[in-house]
């Protein structure tokens, strides 16, 4: 693929890791950040010490605080801002976006106020049809991608040619494999909700409940993801793939997972504000729990894990009581409670 000019907004851990992939693929990559000191460190020391302190960044990777120049010269723009900031960042970028530029986002969450998916937010702010926006998701920790560990993800768009354009942009034969998927609703929903289940897994592990409980949370969490996703129009097949079960497993079991770490701290008796202060980075599962709690009621979907975590996070329910409530739920059938029916 011919070299392209790519803008990555913003310079957090995942944005920086994806920028490395793009630079390794021979593209001209600029990370945009509002922080002048961070841009200076990336440009002069080839480090991003706040987010990936052990990593040495490629010499070809640049950083800038000038969004007009960064976006205005880009053939592709990759949005990797936290979900809470996506609309603002998109609004800043919109006046400078070139016609025909590829738009990709790699953010896993919903907009808390509107409950909209990130592709919808971008479509509104960039004045582009949603089918022209691509989401990148899947089992992928920045700490491993930055070290070029083998990673496999999906890029989703209802337009297969546009998804394939993104696939070509990111595909790296050495360590970063990319599949396409037409189900943008399913990929975005799975990527967002798995952060809630990872909070629950960290909480369970922090309480010392072991592998059995974690496996149950992952499995029943996948059922919740599937129920909500199906109600929102997603394909059930998506949840059996990389964006579904793949991302869920890695986020619920890895030491790199912010959501798992936050859940573990909650289990140790720390309050939510203190957990977030100690983390020092966005924990998407917290805001997503609020959004999913509302979406479950909006779509009439049963999400018991999400409901109990909402009580722990925002209603001061003790974590051990939340686990007890889940274990004591009325008995039901596994297949039916997963939102599936044997007769179709």
UniProtKB/TrEMBL annotation:
Residues at the catalytic site: 194 (proton acceptor)
Entry keywords, A to Z: Cytoplasm, Lipid biosynthesis, Lipid metabolism, NAD, NADP, Nucleotide-binding, Oxidoreductase, Phospholipid biosynthesis, Phospholipid metabolism
Residues engaged in binding NAD(+): 142, 258
Protein name per Swiss-Prot or TrEMBL: Glycerol-3-phosphate dehydrogenase [NAD(P)+]
Name of the gene: gpsA
EC number per UniProt: 1.1.1.94
Catalytic activity from the UniProt record: sn-glycerol 3-phosphate + NAD(+) = dihydroxyacetone phosphate + NADH + H(+); sn-glycerol 3-phosphate + NADP(+) = dihydroxyacetone phosphate + NADPH + H(+)
Binding site for substrate: 108, 258-259
HAMAP family: NAD_Glyc3P_dehydrog (MF_00394)
Pfam families on file: NAD_Gly3P_dh_C, NAD_Gly3P_dh_N
Function text: Catalyzes the reduction of the glycolytic intermediate dihydroxyacetone phosphate (DHAP) to sn-glycerol 3-phosphate (G3P), the key precursor for phospholipid synthesis.
One of the record's GO cellular component terms: cytosol
Pathway: Membrane lipid metabolism; glycerophospholipid metabolism
Protein family per UniProt: Belongs to the NAD-dependent glycerol-3-phosphate dehydrogenase family.
Oxidoreductase keyword on record: yes
GO BP term, pick one: glycerol-3-phosphate biosynthetic process
Sequence positions that bind NADPH: 13-14, 34, 51, 108, 142, 258, 282, 284
Domain (Glycerol-3-phosphate dehydrogenase NAD-dependent C-terminal) ranges: 183-323
Cited PANTHER family: GLYCEROL-3-PHOSPHATE DEHYDROGENASE, GLYCEROL-3-PHOSPHATE DEHYDROGENASE [NAD(+)] 2, CHLOROPLASTIC
Organism annotation: Cohnella xylanilytica
The Glycerol-3-phosphate dehydrogenase NAD-dependent N-terminal domain, residue ranges: 6-159
Domain of life from the UniProt record: Bacteria
InterPro entries membership: 6-PGluconate_DH-like_C_sf (IPR008927), 6PGD_dom2 (IPR013328), G3P_DH_NAD-dep (IPR006168), G3P_DH_NAD-dep_C (IPR006109), G3P_DH_NAD-dep_N (IPR011128), NAD(P)-bd_dom_sf (IPR036291)
Binding site for sn-glycerol 3-phosphate: 108, 138, 140, 194, 247, 257-259
């Amino acid at each position: 693929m011919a070299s392209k000019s790519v803008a990555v907004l913003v310079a957090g851990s995942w944005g920086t890791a994806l920028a490395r992939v793009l630079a390794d693929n021979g593209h001209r990559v600029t990370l945009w950040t509002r922080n002048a000191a961070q841009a200076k460190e990336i440009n002069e020391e080839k480090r991003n010490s706040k987010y990936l302190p052990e990593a040495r960044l490629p010499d070809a990777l640049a950083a800038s605080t000038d969004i007009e120049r960064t976006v205005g010269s880009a053939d592709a723009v990759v949005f990797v801002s936290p979900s809470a900031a996506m609309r603002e960042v998109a609004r800043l970028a919109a006046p400078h976006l070139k016609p025909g530029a590829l738009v990709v986002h790699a953010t896993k969450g919903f907009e808390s106020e509107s409950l909209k998916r990130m592709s919808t937010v971008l479509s509104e702010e960039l004045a582009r049809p949603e089918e022209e926006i691509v989401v990148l998701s899947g089992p992928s920790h920045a700490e491993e991608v930055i070290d070029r560990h083998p990673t496999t993800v999906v890029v989703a768009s209802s337009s297969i040619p546009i998804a394939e354009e993104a696939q070509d942009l990111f595909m790296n034969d050495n360590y970063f494999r990319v599949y396409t998927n037409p189900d943008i609703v399913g990929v975005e929903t799975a990527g967002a909700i798995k952060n809630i289940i990872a909070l629950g897994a960290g909480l369970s592990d922090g309480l010392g409940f072991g592998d059995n409980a974690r496996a149950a949370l992952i499995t029943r969490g996948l059922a919740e993801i599937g129920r909500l996703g199906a109600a929102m129009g997603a394909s059930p097949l998506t949840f059996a793939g990389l964006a579904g079960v793949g991302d869920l497993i890695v986020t619920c079991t890895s030491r790199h997972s912010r959501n798992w770490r936050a859940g573990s701290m909650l289990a140790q008796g720390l309050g939510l504000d203190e957990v977030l202060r100690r983390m020092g980075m966005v924990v998407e599962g917290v805001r997503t729990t609020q959004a999913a709690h509302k979406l479950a009621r909006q779509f009439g979907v049963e999400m018991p894990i999400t409901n109990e975590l909402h009580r722990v996070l925002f209603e001061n329910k003790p974590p051990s009581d939340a686990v007890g409530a889940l274990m004591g739920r009325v008995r039901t059938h596994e297949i039916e409670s997963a939102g599936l029916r044997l007769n179709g």
